[in-house]
Amino acid sequence: MKEFLKKKDIVISLKRYGIDALGAMAQGLFCSLLIGTIINTVGTQFHIGFLTQTVATVAGVDYTVGGIASAMSGPAMAVAIGYALKCPPLVLFSMISVGFASNALGGAGGPLAVLFVAIIAAEFGKAVSKETKIDILVTPLVTIGIGMLLSWLIAPPLGKAAMSVGKLIMWATEQQPFIMGILVSVIVGMALTLPISSAAICAALLLTGLAGGAAVAGCCAQMIGFAVISYKENKVGGLVSQGIGTSMLQMGNIVKNPRVWIAPTVASAITGPIATCVFKMQMNGTPISSGMGTCGFVGPLGVYTGWVNDIAAGTKSAITWFDWLGMALICFVLPAVFSLLIHKIVVKLGWVKEGDLKLS
Q1: Of the chain's two ends, which shows fewer C-beta atoms within 10 Å, N or C?
Q2: Phi, psi of 18, rounded to the nearest 5 degrees
Q3: How many angstroms separate the CA atoms of 264 and 228, rounded?
Q4: Domain enclosing residue 324, as ranges
């Protein structure tokens, strides 16, 4: 069996699944859901007709350019995972169907479902690849068959598990602003970095208002935090890919050393209550913006859109300098400052060393 697995390059290890596959999946998510959301936001904010008009209608659903990109998040993540697992061509191409099914059935936990289902389907596909004279039939059938079966069996439960995070957030919103600020900021921020969709959770829960503001604070703390504390190792490319891309890129490093997560998470616990208690920052734009952070600046733009909506509704008289100050501090300045300070302490304690935050 060991010789067979070695021949098929099937390596059952934490590194292969928890670091390589997870890191690739984050890139797949960015190249689909996140970039699609950025495109939609840019089109809406700057009134770019081509980006806001319907370019395709599928089964009665209208899609914009960004909408199409976002709809392909499942296939993109699955193919990225297959690439990381070094799948042969027929297996890799079959992952498109596997990713679509697992993501669609997983709901808010779609990315988590894709991770589990894609790994298992890919390894089964690799096992049978080129073992028969009708490989072109057998390999896709096994890969897609296993993927579809697992999607049907485990994707919905994983989706419900992810939504339990949402229920916890809803409970947190009923608490006092200080407690709520900490809980919502930390939980949604961590969900942003984990292989579950914080944006989907916020959208499903219609998370706006003060809770939405806390969610924005937590997501920004994770993204800006990781971007600045890893600048020495990842330079400008890492600053951009994490700061306006996704902190999920650090999941592989978090698996290797969970302590690298301390600085951004503690920073989010600080900025959350500042957002709710001091600046009373609300996110009254589209709920999905609450879970996007600084990804394409969607979070801050959502806060701004909320201000405009509130003015139009007559619940807000004008956008003040205090509003702008709060957004700048909560979304950019404070996450960077607190994360750097806390990271220095963590490094001094010997919990994190040079190279722990390096992106592959």
Answers
A1: N
A2: -85, -20
A3: 10
A4: 175-348
